[in-house]
Amino acid sequence: MMEFFVQDIMSSIQFILRHMLFINFILSIVIVFFQRREPRAVWAWLLILYSVPIVGFIIYLFAGTDTHKRKMFRLKEIEDGINEAIRQQEHSIENMEMEEENPELKGFFDLVYYNLHSSGAIFTNDNSVKVFTDGNEKFDALLEDIKQARNFIHIQYYIIRNDVLFNRIREALVEKAKEGVEVRILYDGMGCRAVPPRYWKKLKAEGIQCVEFFPALMRRLHLRINYRNHRKIVVIDNQVAYVGGYNIGKEYIGLSAKFGYWRDTHLRIQGTAVNELQIRFILDWNYAARENLFQQEQYFLTQHKSKGHTRMQIVSSGPDSALQNIRNNYLRLINKAKKSIYIQTPYFIPDESIFNALIIAIQSGVEVNIMIPCKPDHPFVYWATYSYVGDMIMAGANCYTYNNGFLHAKGLIIDGKVYSYGTANMDIRSFSLNFEVNAVVYDKEEAQKMEKIFKEDLKYCSNISKDRYSRRKLSIRIKEQFCRLLSPLL
Predict the structure, then answer these.
(1) Most buried residue, 122, 258, 309, 312, by CB count within 10 Å?
(2) Annotated catalytic residue within 154, 266, 336, 408
(3) How far are the Cα atoms of 140, 167, 192, 264 from residue 146, in angstroms, in the given order?
(4) Is 230 annotated in the active site?
(5) Selected residue with higher pLDDT from 471 and 313
């Protein structure tokens, strides 16, 4: 029996190899005529298919298949209530009522309106925000909030490693579960592929509910390299929430010899905006767990204790979104800049619209500052990043490499008035292929604090001058150009 099975497999492989040219031709027709891709992505796929036919075919099966725009997350029971709140806020903007109540929003009401209309991002103005740029401080604060939990703890991360950091968090979660606190962990199948299944089973046995987003086939074969859930959200008792760039692993607290100090940005939020992160978590949980937490009112009936005045919207985007909401926010903010733009990102691979908007801003006299890491964690992505940064340098932007470890912060600040920070990188993958979430903060004081943090980081940076970039080695030029050709797929 096994002999016949092996023979069938070998026959199938031989058939594919004999007809690879024809298969590539059929895939080319599908890519060009039956999938709505950007021209750059089409040419990149055709380059791979015909340059390395067999390998290209395999890569396409895992990374090129397009489940794009399939509606995955639905509001169901709470949809009517949210839609009513959206309509009220849209009406408030149209009748200039919100302008009277929030004069500091002048110049950004169209962006608030867009976020309401496109992604259902409710505007809230009673929040307080604490910004973390050090992993140890962030996780110390998170552990303290976990210890104070009374009802539930909702945790969602792209990467959770079975190491010293998560052991600390796990001990605190197990203790809370013993006290009767509901604990849920949502993790991405690709990001957590190194964690053995038995580890999650052990957590479940200890009273923690664990669910995998887009699990691997037979626990090993990941059929979706794209469309990963890159969000990092924690919501505790609907009183406090976290969102930002830190995952859970020892490298995020500076214990990796490869990366050294890990410079990231994470927000701790209190106020009504916590509701929006709670809804985002539950939407993702419901999809992955096949249950409906919206039927349980205890997750929403909470009086928020925050006495803050920070205005914000929580904006989500993903491959199931009709629009690239976070990309469009970045684009709108760049177009609105009059004085300055500050960008921090580990991966700078802008699409054509973002690229052109930044060039126009530079040529219009706006000071554009871009900070990237000094070392790669993904080499192909890094050299594509360096190529696009080179274009910015030649156009007149101030570009820097962060030298004190690894820079993983993700966001931008406009004119010291508004910032958008969260999980989304400044790259095509975050714009259209991954599930992301950002906080858009409309607060002059908070934006200037974030700008100050950027300027503090400059102490550990090197400026990439035009002269320095022009004198780069031939080997770097070749790596840049090759990786840039593949940039729509990175």
Answers:
(1) 312
(2) 408
(3) 10, 14, 22, 21
(4) yes
(5) 313
Q: Which of 410, 417, 443, 479 is catalytic?
A: 410
Put residue 358 in one of left, alpha, beta given phi > 0 → left and psi -120 to 50 → alpha. alpha
Please say whether the beta carbons of 232 and 243 come within 8 A.
Answer: yes
Closest CA to 306 of 274, 263, 344, 347: 274
- The residue from 138, 154, 230, 336 that is catalytic is 230
Q: Residue 32: which pLDDT band, with cuts at 50, 70 and 90?
A: very low
Q: What is the mean pLDDT of the chain?
A: 85
Tokens of 384: 């594509």
The torsion defined by the Cα of 431, 432, 433 and 439, in degrees rounded to 10, comes to 40
Asked if 457 is an active-site residue, the reply is no
Say yes or no to pLDDT of 272 above 90.
yes
| CA dist list (Å): 344 to 229, 421, 452 | 21, 9, 13
pLDDT 10s digits, 190-231? 899 888 989 999 999 999 999 999 886 655 555 556 788 999
Which candidate, 440, 445, 376, places its Cα nearest to that of 412? 440
Strand 348-349 and strand 367-373: the pairing is: unpaired
- Between helix 109-119 and helix 325-336 the angle, nearest 10°, is 170
Of the candidates 281, 283, 296, the one whose C-alpha atom is nearest the C-alpha of residue 236 is 281
Phi, psi of 418 (to 5 degrees): -140, 145
Those residues with Cβ within 8 angstroms of residue 490's Cβ, 6 or more apart along the chain or in another chain: 347, 349, 378, 380, 381, 384, 427, 428, 429, 483
Tokens for 192, please give them: 């957590």
Domains, the chain, with CATH or none = 15-64 (no CATH), 76-82+127-308 (3.30.870.10), 325-489 (3.30.870.10)
* Active-site residue, from 237, 351, 427, 457: 237
Catalytic-residue membership of 237:
yes
Short-list 192, 190, 189, CA closest to 166:
192
Question: What is the model's pTM?
Answer: 0.85
Given 138, 154, 176, 232, the catalytic residue: 232
Could you confirm whether 76 is annotated as catalytic?
Answer: no
Query: 3-class SS at 332?
Result: helix
3-state secondary structure of 215: coil
Query: Which value, to the nearest 10 degrees, does the dihedral of the CA atoms of residues 87, 92, 95, 101 take?
Result: -170
The per-residue pLDDT for range 117-129, each reduced to its tens digit, is: 888 899 999 999 9
Whether the CB-CB separation of 188 and 230 falls below 8 Å is answered with yes
**410 a catalytic residue:** yes
